[in-house]
Records
---
Amino acid sequence: MQEQTQKSGFMNVAACVFAYAVGVCVRASILGAGERMPGINGAYSPVQVRSLLEKGALGLPDYPLMFAIHAGLAATVHKVTGLALESSIVLAVKLCMALLPPLTVIPVFILTRRWCDRAGSTPSRLPFVAATMASVGAPFVLMTGNFDKNALALVWLAALLLALHTYMERRSVANLAMTTVFLVLLGLTHIGTFTTGLLLWICVITIYIMQPAGPPLRATIPAVAVSILAVALAECLVFWKFDPARIGRFLNALTNPLGFLTTHSAATPPMQFTPLGVLLLAIHLGGLGGFAALVFRTVRKNRARLSSADIALICGSVITIVFITGPWIMNDASPRLIFIAVLPSIVVGMFAAIHHAPSRTRRILVAIGGVVLIVPGLSQGVFGGWRIMSDEAYAELKTSSAQISNPERTLVVAMHGMEWDAAWLLGTRVALPSALRASDWQKYDEVFYLTIKERLDPLGRFASARKRESDSARKNEDKFLVLGPFAKLPYVEIPAEAEVVHDGKYLQLARVKTPPQSLTAKS
């Protein structure tokens, strides 16, 4: 018996390590394709880390934890290897992006393994499948270079799910402290995932207390109060020291929740969904109700043999998933919240598969889920991540730095994605056209508009600048950069009165001495 237990323990560790290693390899494949960072926000972290190392502060207000981790590793690499600072920063950021997000496999594997053992299906491969989904699922791999803070925060969210379940099964100060620690880490990493984690924590604890077998209120309320106080102090530190502007948005969310849920930020580009993107969103909303109904039915059917911790964690997670992905959230956070919801959905889905479906149906459902999540995620590693511009355009952007005489006093206006490459290569301040104000011309010595002549086809391949300029049939479409089959971003249009200082094969850089008429009219 002891030998069998040891063998089972070894297989569990091996399965977990393998799922983690696959996730690292897939991300390393995407990150290792050249010196550049992949994704639409790829250069954002290097820009923030460089500012943190050179000036001791973030270049833009933001949640600090991820950048502090990157900066610590970059400083170590720079000191130990003697690499140039910027090369050390890029290497450190890539290492963190490859090694940290796949750690979600550990809590997901442990939770699923725990439920399999209690359901009497010890040989089940479900824990490994669940861990692989969390490691190389398409949404998680797609975050590489696009939503990097989200990716790190999902590690804390997965750990919070496990810590909550552990605390509810074995109430102790240490286990409660662990749930608080992961909430604090979420509060230092990313606002959307922190909000999701806090909502999940509240829902789960509330359901747990309300059950007949739940703990007495006089023992629970002080513990909950201490946890809330610790989390509140961490958030106050972030608001005060790193992102004070977020206080206003936070208060606005509390006083006007409907307006907050439906208002788009001026700093967010007006991304438009293609018909296929709208169709997928409709399918998602339709499946959401069916998913919730299936899980609640599973809990009700198995209520007699489920622990209070199981019921609270699953029901609280479903309520959170429905709330953050429902059609009532119509602001620019909606796509990110859907991505965040995939992680608890995997945990909840595996719980339903273990406790509800017959073995044959279970295999079919898990196989479908695996194909939908894992195959696209692996394919991203095989074909590499996409970038906002070609290598040739990136090299041309480097050379255009000769036109910038005083980067610290210069503002470059570029489309979303390009602005971070411009900040990294040119060392300037950057802005999106949608966030530009007429007063910016008083804040900076010079203002430049940067636009790209390339376009991406639906498969993510770059069309030549010549083709884009000559194809009159695509004149209207050329106003947008197509991000695969799902969405598109508008190109930057250079004002007519601008002075073009660089007109290359791939890029155009123009100096704009006075605010365009569209901005002055708006003011």
Note: The chain has a mean pLDDT of 80.
---
Amino acid sequence: MLGLRKHKGVYSGAGIFLLILFMSFLFFLPFTKALIPLTLNGNAPGTANMWTANSIDSGVSKITPAGVITNYTISGANTPYGIASDGTNMWIVNDIGHSVTKITPAGITTTYTGTGVGPSAIAFDGTNMWTANANSNSVTKISSGGVMTNYTGTGATPVAIAFDGTNMWTANQGDNSVTKIAPDGTMTTYTETGFQPVAIAFDGTNMWTANKLGNSVTKITPAGTMTNYTGTGNQPYAIAFDGTNMWTANYMGNSVTKITPAGTMITYTGTGFYPDAIAFDGTNMWTANYDGGINSSGSVTKIAPSGTMTNYTGTGRYPQAIAFDGYTYCFCSGLNQNWDVAMPANCILKVDCNMGTGNLSYTGPFMTNYFGTGDSPQAIASDGTNIWVTNLASNSVTKITPTGTMTTYSGTGATPYSIAFDGTNMWTANANSNSVTKITPTGTMTNYSSLTTTPRGIAFDGTNMWIATSALVSHQSAVVKVAPDGTSTSYAMSSGLGGLAIAFDGTNMWITNSLSDSVTKVSSSGGILLYATGTGDTPYSIAFDGTNMWTANYGSNSVTKITPSGTMTNYTGTGVNPIAIAFDGTNMWTVNKGDNSITKVAPDGTMTNYSDVGGGRYFSIAINGTNIWVAHLNDNGVTKISTDISGNFTVNATLQASDLGSLYANQTIYIGSQANVIVL
């Protein structure tokens, strides 16, 4: 095989000459330059794109859902091998340049040097980018500003990297192992995957590796226990999750393999030649096909859930990585004119950037972003007028008035995990200081400490606050009743593991037990009235609709309706990883951490999903009048979503030429999440 080819960490072929040639062009960076061309073309309302990193051309290719390919050369990139999205920007690792390149939606590139030697893969943890450095047995954490921190000590030749929601994991080709990297950089390596693990992906609970020379996949539990399944296509080079199944791209088989949760494998042939990367777009799988040959133009293949394939040729040469940009552009408009918007299904109108003035005729949900809360907003609640947000990392709360004015008050207990309203004051449950904090309407705080171990959920019964807790070692659920003066009474629970959330039904308290897929109903005196198993997997949150309780089930993408007698009905089909739930007077709404979406659940369980509502890593939801508020952890902000806006209204904002560069007559713009404007 001709040309430079790095087989997941090992150079081969006749590429040594090219390697030397490329190294002679290294620069001292960062560079800050525009992609060529500057203007991104080819998007349409409601679409998102796949991107490939093309190793031989020092460039990237954007592939629209229709298969239209646009190639860009990146100044400062040297042999790009991995690509990932942070929700706004694309990031590329440059193997020879020992660097990363950030590409904004407007096509501006910035390259930062200083990773470990030979970065070959990249992943996002919600805040930082991480690279796996194949030739230095290390990982590098890269902040949004490009600051790098290197950690050494992974297994041999880490060539792939993935995030499990808390830890980073690398697949180490050189010694058939995986390494778990804790948030502080501490590493634990587990051996005995299949032969030569070269890719890794997370299924919401377990990590999976694709083992190139074992024609197998390995499932790794959070504790590091491994189970191998053989029988994929020939040489699985990449792996990705579709929300239910794992898929591998099989390099020597020109095929993909679907692996069910039980480990059953179905292989579909017919991709482009040598598929060596794979990614999911929410509906279809896509492979990047290396193709081979120095003059090859490269290709991508779209694989429908049934296995039907469509090939598109013309990417840059030797595409070695593929990633989804996640952007959903929900409407287009002209400048300073009237807009008549026909919305695609399941989109939310986003007006969160400067976009010109004009009259907008529209019916449907409407989103406005407010940013500027404290560090890492975690929980959110309404006092009937204002929204209050707890800031996990800064031990504070932020009050947001109806006009969007924000005031942050510092001094809660450590790690305010949840928040509730008592009719006058807000109360937080502080997980890392075993305390609660009472916050008056003016922001005055009173802390009550040493109440119990790891308080999580909090709810008001009309007189007292109640806290759901989970013991650190046994995970046994318990409840604590806190009087208005801070006096507390603890009640041990004889059943239920992993108490996370609590809600009041007008008479009794209900607790979700996340580790035992159950709920517990507790009387005002602390006695257990009902312990019922059978919710969906990992119930994280609970809310009351006036008659029934509803849980949001993180692990099974579902909600469970629980009648007063404890009868449960499960409804599947929310967005990925529903982590919080709230009631609007008619419907339940979940906020879904795994795909940055919200889901409206009708009383009969019928669901409507709305995608890409701004921010990322959603953690909580609250309803205030006709508005839904979502706190998202990784951009220190909240999003307000009006549930029913119709008719004509004026958008009062002005598009500045300085925001976009040169503007032209009759130009069309798309509005994306987090105040990004894409010029077409």
Note: The first helix runs from residue 16 to 23.
---
Amino acid sequence: MKILQTLFFIGFLLSFSVQAFELATPENSATIFISANEPECVHMAVEDLVSDVLKIARKEIRVVSDLSACSENTVIVGTATSNHSLGLLQRFLPNAASLDGKWEAFQVQSVSSNIEPVKEALVIAGSDQRGTMYGVYAFCEHYLGVDPFYIWTGREPGMRDHLQWNEIELMQDEPTFKFRGWFLNDEDLLVGWMEDGGKRHIRYPHYHQVTSPTIYDWVYETMLRLRLNLVIPASFNNIMNTDEARAIEMADRRGIFISMHHIEPVGVSGFAFSNYWRYRGGSDFSIVKFPERFKEIWTFYAKLWARYDNVVWQLGLRGIADRPVWASDPQVPKSDEARGKLISDAIQQQMGIISQVETRKPVYATTTLWMEGARLHEQGFLEFPENVAVIFADNSPGWTMQEDFYNVERQPGRDYGYYYHHALWGVGPHLVQGVSPQKAYSIAAEAVERQTNYYAILNVSNIRQFVLGLQAAARFMNDFDEFDPDEYLDAWCQRHFGHMAEQAVASYRAFFDSYVTREHSFHSEMGGVKDLPVLLDGQTLHRGERIFSKLWTHVLLDDPAHELDTEEELGESLSEVQEQIAGLEKAGTLGKIVRQNLTGDAKMFYEENFIAQWHILMGLEQWLEAGILATQAFKDNDRPELERQVNNAMEAFEMIRKGQELTSRGKWQGWYRGDRKMNLDRAGHITAELDRALEQ
């Protein structure tokens, strides 16, 4: 699969004398022809093309569905599998039929025409509805200069009076990964930033608000521009709530496949189970005691989900929240073999339900082996229906796959994929990017090598912090063979930072290299170890909260029940954090040079994507360092040093806030309003309380 912008004329095209195709000039503008019978999602992609041209050239392109209404220059948009479009496509592009039967392939070609009234045509032909959309968006990116992430980066295409080209050629064959998408998990900043999404009904400390439809519209447009086709739109999504169902409906309208969190088999989370049965007399969450109640709710929800055209079903059996089923159901057997059978039987039953309610063929179904699922899978205690794709998961905090990925032999005829965290609440990354393009590519390379490239879902959390890694991932999921992570980083920085690209590359490399890693044993088959990070933003925050909370109890409460860390523990933590601070100082020095030499939108984006994240991570590391040194001072009865280090901790939090200010400008004001997962305010409050106590 390739996107080509080089000559690929074949014999039948050589007879044409190709003139410049004029999309928009001060004198003229083209028309866009699209059959009224094309799917709604293709019409929506054409609307985005019209919007792009209007922004760039200040020209509004007419969209028509009657060939006689076309102008001399016309964009012909159509899908090869559509009877209403194929005949016309073949008149302009005789080999359009070669797309038939392919998955999400497209061809974009400018040709001269003798079909009145069209003299010059730009044909955008897709093998299916998504292929056609991707052809439209590929043209917008490669010829109009529209950054797929423009909504998040602020990088708008430049204004141009003349949108015309002597020749236009793009082609994409079938993508490397059949399903490629995002999981909006732990999306607290997205939820809290705009507050018009509606309410959720869930007995849990988080997720009481629904993400704004404006944000979902942005997310789905971005995904399509990146040629992604799959979304899990939220954590604990409940289709029974109309506000939550809207996210599913919006994705379906845009032609994006929709699926469920791995704790929501057939769309049913433990919270949805409780809500459903609370209005029907109540029920304990116990599949052992009440198997018929699980079957009833699975059937009920399956019928609701089956109304949508583009569903990838999630199967499995887990407990309330993101926990094993036995954490919520004490009746579950104790042995791994019996637990594996319970889960396997549930998946078999769910597949039977789906087969009854799903009228479309083929039926797409997956099971994601997160946490206990990976362990039971490696032990051989899980069995799956033959048409269920098995999705391996990375470990926590990401960076490497779990052992079943390496040790389980792939079954002939079964599809496999992987689930990977670009963001992971708890340990991180969450507020600061941690996965470099090189790291993400290395995981994909392992998947491709092991024929595990049917499906790839990326946990993206709040998206905005991770645009560098997510755009890289979209590229290699579409065309793995043509992707080089080093070349990608160079090109990405060139597009965003121009003359400072080389220095920007160095700053990003230094930033990702600053993360301290330690060896952990993994992969018994390989007999090796993997380096895993120990001071991602979440890891640093939780270490610091633990240290400051213990110190707080000793200073304010004189409570010896909370033992302070030992000298050995403090020394090891101090060594790690100071090593990471040293690496960040190098990255910060490089970043300062880049920032000083940028202007306008390039400078603003660099400040948001690099400088701000550097301030947040460096502030966290210096805060943790101060907490360790303050604890040592307390143990040494050195009051002046204790006060000095707590004051340093307060200054470190000012650095964090400075980073947050940089990412909260313009339309992004209030970006951290929803910070309830990492909850920096809580850590800042503990630190301030300790500082006030020492001042008394």
Note: The radius of gyration is 27 Å.
---
Amino acid sequence: MKKAFVVFLLFTLSLCVPTQGIKAQYKLDFKINNLPDTIKTVYLLKYFGDKLQYADTTEIKSGKATFLKKNYPGGMYAFYTGASYFEFVISDQDKNISIETTNNNFIKDMKIIKSDENKIFYEYINFIGSKRPISEQLVKEREALDQKIITEIEDDITEIEDDEWYTVYESKDGSLKLQVKFEISQNLCGQNSPTKFLYRYKGNLENVENYGNWELDYLDCNDVKYTMTGYAPLSSNCKNMSGIEEMEEFNMDEREESLTAKKLIEIRPNVGNANEYFSLPIKESLDPKKYSVKVKAINDQLIALDKEVKQFQKDIVKKHKGKLISKILNMSVEIEIPTETPDSLKGLYLRDHFWDNIDLTDERLARTPIFSSKVEYYFKNLVYQIPDSIVKQASFIIDQVKDSTDMMKFLLNYVHVNYETSNIMGMDGVYVGMSLKYYCPPNKNKAWWYPEQNLADRCEKAMTWEPLLLGKVAPNLRLADTTEKKWINVHELPNKHKVLIFWDPDCGHCKKEIPKLLKVYHELLDKKQDVAFIGIGTELDNEKWRKMIKEKNIDFINLSDFPDANKNAAQYVYEMRVTDYPSLNFRKTYDLFSTPQIYLLDENNKIVAKRLDANNLARILERRLDITLDYKEEPKDDKKKDTDK
């Protein structure tokens, strides 16, 4: 256990309620043989998701310890000596528990004296433990064979060309193969929906599964790299694949008649990501049966072992239906996808049936690490990482959960920590969506543990952010230019794209960013692109603002309010009708707590990107306008100084 955790336990000892005088309904007896005499106090820890929290403490004498309490909420717990711990289960069906083991080896020497739930639990643990060494040995043998194959193949091929998009190998017999490896790092924050690329090749292949079935799913706004790997004969079409646009036009299906491939074998080298793999051609002289027969035999043994474990698990779940341990183990039972389900729909089927084996109405499951891992897998692997999908799939789960339970608390906290606090553009949509549905409706607040003031602050923020989400029509601005005479209605500007730049002449970051934005703006003008840049001064006193505009020759549209317009707002709004209150209150309307703030709007005044800098803005406009801009972000000062040295 981590030192910090131990310190936390010791610090909270004063919060412990003494066991004397309590009319206990739960009694937990433990006997730990060979425990050092120096250990005087032991702890009861409880899971909340995959985190262990303090639950209780008691003295231990001659290796014996007893915990007494009116109630221990059902779930997985741990007995902690201060140095190490073992896990067990508490349920309302098993209130009296007696466990004996040794300090030498908790699991191996475990004896469940009294507790039906834990007898089943450790029956499962011991069974899995007996199978793990067999599995590990088989995997080692297979990896050794794979390495032999890799070595022999690599001796027979030579890399003759290496490009950003592909690598060409030449074998000794003169035949050419092309390894296609696409690595795309793209920021699609300017898109209202993700982009999907799909390539399939169904050539004449022998004994190779899924060869040439290349799929790149969704890109998000976090500049994450997605990789596809496959093989195809060298061709002029492949050589021309030098960019995303050409990739989109490249249709593998149209060429499937002309594509042929020699016998290939899939190998798994030792790479950082276990999901990565690639294929290499087998040389003519290599007998494919030399290793493949042995590899197949090992794979067959691993498959049989996996089936045995899964069946054992299913048998326990069925035999002990209704018990907490049965529900816990059932969470790990894999969803069986019907064999007739097309490959393209298997992921959707798994997502829609992922919770079939999990009783979301039983809050005890939220107090297990297994439930936490299931939630993690579901959101990271089965849910598209865009706000609407995240809120929709989170709602699908949460709407099945009972109010005022730890299950509700865990799920709402998970979404908050993993998405609502994200710096990825657009993820504020999750914050808004979840807030308006679960935190803010009157008399329907699901966040029962939330402090009232925090709840009020959250709801106010959600309502402020809601009009500023990606895809929303940006709040209109009707503000005056530097003369304070001419008023501009931003929504009525005819440009195909509009860049709103909220800035302050006293802001140090603004002073660095405005010149960069000017470079982007002038380059767009030179390329005759229909993009309007609108700078909005955020200081009420406009003297410094006008001075900087003149000194820096900031020649895009410059707007702001001014003291008289705010002091006599009614006159400008109702008599002159040149503006409105949301425009004069633009600092609150656009939630401007820091500057600069940059928004990109489309021709319909919808927000396509926000919270940008000059570099991100340039890259997004390149994609949207199908142009190349020379502007590139300058190196930071510290790097620049190092270069100068």
Note: Residues 1-22, 163-288, 638-645 have pLDDT under 50 and may be disordered.
